[in-house]
């Protein structure tokens, strides 16, 4: 089974590309798309995910990990499922044994819907915190320690940033204790400058996480298209990294030299310089080690210094 919570509007037994109610879905492994008929009770959904996340005990305390995948724009529910399954398979192959689930927000399957998708992303973002992150945080007890992590691709990074910013502006949520452990951005479709230290937009993001790792690829042609749609006003963090000075909690990881050497060998059905992360074993290994958090950022064996300075995947 795959576990997804969706905030798309339902139309019969299918989902539209407009915002709607929250659906907690238990999706059969042979399903090709998300359907409202896959819905189960929220409490059952959360308890099942918690059970799947647990990997044992440490000093008598149950431990586990939950990864929430947040997709980008131009994603049908079918592509959301495919990438979720690729992520689950890839992380498991590298030793990650927690639960991997998805947050599905209304995103069209046409590139021309880019600007509309950004509006829907902003409207849906808050639900990521209220329906997902805070629900898991509320179940944390001294007898059960579950780490929640986020992996956001493309405009999913914008969803995450807006979700955290919005949550801190709402007294009912801001007054509660909630946080995540690791946040990973893949090909982030957010302004590089907007992620800098001292900028108001990401302050909540950095405050409510242990670390944010930004995987960027200078060969990402989709983010060039994104720049055109935004009238070229700001380079994207998923293409150029985050402008210096980097925030204390952020790790910029340059994937350019690695992609230049190995990217052309990736043959997954929907691969591109923007999507290749989901099918590359080195990226999966690096992410699995990042999620584990046992090795310092500069000592993770898949990484090394680049010719331009800073960290990157070893080519």
Topology (elements, then pairings):
Blueprint: E1 2-11, E2 14-27, H1 42-53, E3 54-58, E4 61-70, H2 77-93, E5 99-104, H3 114-138, E6 144-153, H4 156-168, H5 171-174, E7 182-186, H6 203-207, E8 211-216, H7 221-229, H8 237-240, E9 250-254, H9 256-262, H10 281-292, E10 303-305, E11 311-313
Parallel strand pairs: 1-5, 4-5, 4-6, 6-7, 7-8, 8-9, 9-11
Antiparallel strand pairs: 1-2, 3-4, 10-11
Helix pairs in contact: 2-10, 3-4
Keywords:
alpha/beta, Rossmann fold, eleven-stranded mixed sheet, 10 helices, 11 strands
Question: How would you describe this protein?
Answer:
- This protein has 315 residues and is α/β, with parallel strands linked by helices.
- It has a single domain, classed as Alpha/Beta hydrolase fold, catalytic domain (Rossmann fold, 3-Layer(aba) Sandwich), CATH 3.40.50.
- Helices cover 34% and strands 24% of the residues.
- Strands 1, 2, 3, 4, 5, 6, 7, 8, 9, 10 and 11 form an eleven-stranded mixed sheet that branches.
- α6 links the parallel β7 and β8.
- α2 crosses α10 and α3 packs across α4.
- It is globular, with a radius of gyration of 18 Å.
- The mean pLDDT is 83.
What's this model, at a glance?
With 315 residues, the protein is of the alpha/beta class. The protein is 34% helix and 24% strand.
